[in-house]
Amino acid sequence: MPPGTRSSDPSVIHEILGSVAVARCLHAVAELGIADRLEEGPVTADELAAATGAHARSLYRVMRMLATTGIFAEDEAGRFHLTPAAAVLRSGVEGSVRNRLRLAWQDLIWATYGQLPYTVMTGEPAFDRAHGLPLFDYLAENPEANAVFDKAMALISGPEDESVAASYNFGLHDVVVDVGGGRGGMLAAVLARHPTVQGILFDQPQVVEEVDPGEVGPAGRCSIVGGDFFRFVPTGADAYVLKRIIHDWDDEPAARLLGRCAAAAQPDGRVLVVEAVIRPGNDPDPHKAQDVGMMLLTRGRERTAEEFRILFEASGLRLERIIATREGTTLSILEGAPMTRQATRQRA
């Protein structure tokens, strides 16, 4: 029997197909704010329906099904309780996923996945086919969707930022540029942990125009620059960090961006790519599912260690090491040094 196979069992496929229903039901209860309404204690489906305008029997059936997965719990009186698994469905709590699950955003995603066969046959992004524009162009023209996207990314980034800052000795560098750094969450974590570092937050002008440097770092330690990173990046820094940026792009533009950072860096500078690294083999790896999502949404991709090595070489960088980040994320830090220069600073 080939590796990774087992005897025929249709229940495995049925279970996977059933997870689609679970996901869609999660979207519905997130939209209605059900978890927020259970925060003060158990409530019946009839009471939830009266408060939200939902159809009581239909809402009950959705809640009952979710309770079998550990999301909510039904007691003998027919009241539903908030469970630890459902806690992140609440609004405004650490790790909240409610905005990411709300229908305004999820309808975009479902329509995109509906075009998966198109991507498989053509190699073109399903999002473009489903919505008529590339993802980032669509977000630029639809502020509501863009706001949901930004909030979802911020919630994901928080724990990641602290982990990245703790996993690499940024104190080796005098000036660190956060390329495509958004509102500066990661750079803020770096500056807080490494008091000798100066930071530059670099992103598109409309992204950084309302960012207060004081929110990113102490007075005098952070500057903000707006621009298009395919046209220029600030020059003369010691480290250029690109977190969850390279996976948005196919190899040619990704290598071009990395090459621009390498050319801008000090002679003994470093380019630090913070991304998922796909594991080989058949073992479970969430990054493989994430890679399919990137394929459908953009022209980007998640990469293996070997694919990163090839990409770095194409951009004039030598991949020196891959550093696993600490608890809080499954991302890795890929450290690159310009091939044409000799590194003179001892690395930790």
Structure notes:
It contains 16 helices and 12 strands. Helix 15 links the parallel strand 9 and strand 10. It has a 7-stranded mixed sheet, sandwiched between helices. With 348 residues, the chain is of the alpha/beta class. The C terminus is likely disordered.
List descriptors.
disordered C terminus, 348 residues, alpha/beta, 7-stranded mixed sheet, 3-stranded antiparallel sheet, 15% strand
Write a brief structural summary.
The protein is of the alpha/beta class. Helix content is 46%, strand content 15%. The strands form three sheets. Strands 6-5-4-7-8-12-11 form a seven-stranded mixed β-sheet, sandwiched between helices. Strands 1-3-2 form a three-stranded antiparallel β-sheet. Strands 9-10 form a two-stranded parallel ribbon.
**What structural class do you assign from the helix and strand content?**
alpha/beta
Fraction in helix: 40-55%
The beta-strand count equals: 12
- Strand line-up in the sheet with most strands: 6-5-4-7-8-12-11
How large is the count of helical segments? 16
Task: State Rg.
Answer: 23 Å
Average pLDDT for all residues: 90
Spatial shape: globular
Beta strand %? 15-25%
End-to-end CA span: 46 Å
Low-confidence stretches: 343-348
Largest sheet: 7 strands, mixed
Along the chain, the helix and strand elements come as HHEHHEEHHHHHHEHEHHEEHEEHEHEE
Question: Helices, strands, pairings?
Answer:
Layout: H1 10-32, H2 34-37, E1 43-44, H3 45-52, H4 56-67, E2 73-74, E3 79-81, H5 98-101, H6 103-113, H7 116-122, H8 126-131, H9 135-141, H10 143-167, E4 175-179, H11 185-193, E5 198-203, H12 205-208, H13 213-216, E6 222-226, E7 239-243, H14 251-264, E8 270-275, E9 277-278, H15 286-297, E10 303-304, H16 305-314, E11 317-324, E12 332-338
Parallel strand pairs: 4-5, 4-7, 5-6, 7-8, 9-10
Antiparallel strand pairs: 1-3, 2-3, 8-12, 11-12
